[in-house]
Amino acid sequence: MTDIADELAGLDFAAVSPEEFAGIVKKASAKDIATIMQGDMRERVLAEVFGRMGRQFRPDAAGSLDALIRWKVTGEQETVYETRIADGTCTVTEGRSEADPRVTLVMGDAEFLKLVSGNGNPVTMFMTRKLKVAGDVGLASGLTRYFDIPKA
């Protein structure tokens, strides 16, 4: 493993601030990300990132928004999470529900980590087909304003 992969493997993700995580992702190469986003480590990283979404949600920015966002993160396998924004709250669940999402976002592991850590430009990702959007493209284009995205 590389130094960054080793660093991530030993991390207690709950003790890492969003800004520290953003800095780690910024330093990581695509190969580093591919190395760490396997098996249990991948599950730990995704669970921690999605687990923080509710805490990083900005209800003042969301206002009266009512939407279900489905995230499909591809890589070693496809992992699905859903984010429900309604009544000034944000709840995150693992897995696919029977509800119809207002928007579905599909991206690989590296793109997902870059997006949620503030290290990737969602417009560029969309234009280069690294981020696929099905449904309400307008909602997708404004999602970042509903969350405190860390800066590395």
Automatic annotation (TrEMBL):
Any one GO cellular component localisation term in the record? cytosol
Q: Which domain of life is it from?
A: Bacteria
Q: What InterPro entries does its record include?
A: SCP2_sterol-bd_dom, SCP2_sterol-bd_dom_sf
**Record-annotated SCP2 domain positions:** 59-147
Per its record, how is this protein called by name?
SCP2 sterol-binding domain-containing protein
Can you name the source organism?
Streptomyces daliensis
